[in-house]
Amino acid sequence: MGHQSELATPHNSDDESGDAFTDGDFGDSDDEHIIERNDNIKASHIPINETKNEDIHKMNGATNGFSKNADFEEQPRHIVRSVSEAHSSDVENPNIHLSDLRRDSHGDQSPSIVGILGDQQNHAEQRLAARRAARAEAREIRMRELERQQREQEDHADKAYDMYAGKTETVGRRDRTRLAALSPASSVLSPRRSSEDSVDDLFSMKDLRHELKEVEEKFRKAMILNAQLDNDKAALGYQLELLKDRIEELHEEYAQLQREHREKCSSLERVKREFESVSRELSAARDAVRARDCAAAAAGFAFVEAAALDAAPSSAGQAVGAVPPLALVSHHAEQLLNDAGEGTLDVRLQNLLSSKQSLESEVRKLKLQLNEERAARQNGVANHHDQEYENELEAARKGLSEAKGRAARAEAEAALNAAHVARLEAQLARLRARQDHQDEHEEQLKQERRKLQREVRTHTHTV
């Protein structure tokens, strides 16, 4: 009973401190600690409070227990020392688990591939289930060890008390026999001293009983204090289990945030690569269009769209994929289109068509006047103004023929220019739509990057 090695608790004080509670009180926490069995440490399933209460009931019925009380007075010190050692071991264990978790997290920072991440997550779940099973098995082994240790402590305490009680009784009997044998006048003075001896024995018994009561009272106080310390130890063990569960949850949340962060970073890198490739393609297309326009201008031609600009495309994909037809016209045709006025190609063509119709109406009027003049000359009504009319008629004919030629050429060039202008406007609209789409995509990427940076900073401050 007086040995410290048997009274000291095992190093796994976090599990032993919760022996007064069942597994249902705490819940099955995802503890990753694998508890190994230590055969050198003896344990018991009986809680410390119940054990001490049983010892108090046993000692209340004892009549001679001075040495046994002395042995029990030393027991709280051993228990307090074992509790302090157990808590020191608990303080050291989280650092070890945190370093293991960091090594696992650094090992997981391999190339972020979706398949590999899924395999790692499955492997982590299997490993966690194995650790839970090992923890349950270790708990059962520890409970059996605690039961055996408690039984051995009780047996040892009973044997020590019986040995001490028997030894004191034997020594007292031998002392009384030796004093009676050494007394020279024992036989002569025995009748006279018998009364005195009885009185002395009575006073000595009263003193012994009084001392025994005092010792028992001290022992009760010590055991009450020991029970209070055991209750405090159990409460601290419960709080320690709660803190461990909270730490485990925080570790799991941290690992989940790290996985999400790696996935976001990988998606961000992929989008950045796509954006860079599209930007390179856009710059190459712009350079090609610029080189084509320069070559056409050097040759005295210009590119115009062959068709009018349709309505706005329904989606960016259609705008990017559509290729409008282009036409190569001379600078004179381009000048005519410019002289037609501002606006789209349709408006310019309408202006050219209206000018052509006005010229045709003027030609018809001149033809009617010519026919009237011819009829008047045939009827003899012509006067001295015939020569002037003939000159004017010739001039009108020449002007009409020239106007017709210009109108035909203008109409042909207008058709070509209209086609080229339509193609160029469609291509320009397509390029603008593509540029707008790229700008929107770039803005979304910037917002996503800022959001990820804020999440990383918030998570860093939280940790």
From TrEMBL:
UniProt feature, compositional bias: Polar residues: 1-11
Record bears the keyword NAD: no
The keyword Coiled coil appears for this protein: yes
Gene3D superfamilies on file: 1.20.5.4090
Keywords tagged on the record: Coiled coil
Coiled coil: 136-163, 205-288
Chain positions covered by the region annotation Disordered: 1-115, 432-463
Compositional bias annotation for Basic and acidic residues: 32-42, 433-447, 453-463
InterPro entries the UniProt entry points to: LRRFIP1/2
Record-stated family: Belongs to the LRRFIP family.
Protein name: Leucine-rich repeat flightless-interacting protein 2
Protein species of origin: Arctia plantaginis
